[in-house]
Amino acid sequence: MNTTRVRRFLQDEQGVTAIEYGLLAALIGVGIITAAALLGTKIGDLFTTIANKLGAAST
């Protein structure tokens, strides 16, 4: 009876799959946060440059 439970536990992969999905979601989250941080600064600089050029052109 105990060997059956142990065998069933070792063959059950639902927990492993949930952990894999969790790790994958965390990795994707880190990638999104990193990309947003890098692109956010560059986009902010781009808008500042455009605003400065528009300000200089209007005077």
Produce the secondary structure layout.
Layout: H1 2-11, H2 14-58
Distance between the termini: 88 Å
What's the β-strand tally? 0
C-alpha geometry: rod-shaped
Using the CA coordinates, give the radius of gyration. 26 Å
Elements, N to C (H/E)? HH
What is the makeup of the main sheet?
none
Q: Enumerate the spans where pLDDT stays under 50 for 5 or more consecutive residues.
A: none
The chain-level mean pLDDT equals 86
Please report the number of helical segments: 2
Describe the overall structure:
By secondary structure, the chain is an all-alpha fold. The chain is 93% helix and 0% strand. It has two helices and no strands. The protein is rod-shaped, with a radius of gyration of 26 Å. It starts with a helix and ends with a helix. The mean pLDDT is 86.
Keywords:
93% helix; mainly alpha; 59 residues
Brief account:
The chain is mostly helical and 59 residues long.
